[in-house]
Amino acid sequence: MTGKRLEIPAALGPVEGNDLGRRSFAASPAQFSETGFPSLEEVQQRLIRAALTRCNGKIEGPGLAADLLVVNPNTLRSKMRKFGIRVTRSV
């Protein structure tokens, strides 16, 4: 595959506001060298929290958190346990 290049900000998609944590995913590689590069676990945690927030804490079903993250709902639950992420739903 020649001529193709992975653009990280484009691959991560748009970020609305700054609800994904203290560092934005839209940072350029030059900014990472100044602020520190987020660990894979930190990025996973922020993405899980953002998906749960968008889906009001709902994990399983079409268009819900596991579907948005393109993971099996049981995998998402396992990651949530690992990171100590608890679901809180607003009524």
Q: How many strand units? A: 0
Number of helices: 5
**If you average the pLDDT, what whole number results?**
78
Biggest sheet character: none
Strand fraction: under 5%
**Uncertain spans, ≥5 residues at pLDDT below 50?**
17-24
Helix and strand composition category: mainly alpha
SSE arrangement:
Blueprint lengths: L7 H5 L16 H7 L4 H15 L10 H5 L3 H11 L8
Structure notes:
- The chain has 91 residues and is mainly α.
- It has a domain at 41-86.
- Helices cover 47% and strands 0% of the residues.
- It has five helices and no strands.
- It has helices at 8-12, 29-35, 40-54, 65-69, 73-83.
- The longest helix is centred in the middle third of the chain and has 15 residues, at 40-54.
- It is globular, with a radius of gyration of 15 Å.
- Residues 17-24 have low confidence and may be disordered.
Q: Care to give the gist of this entry?
A:
The protein is an all-alpha fold. It has five helices and no strands.
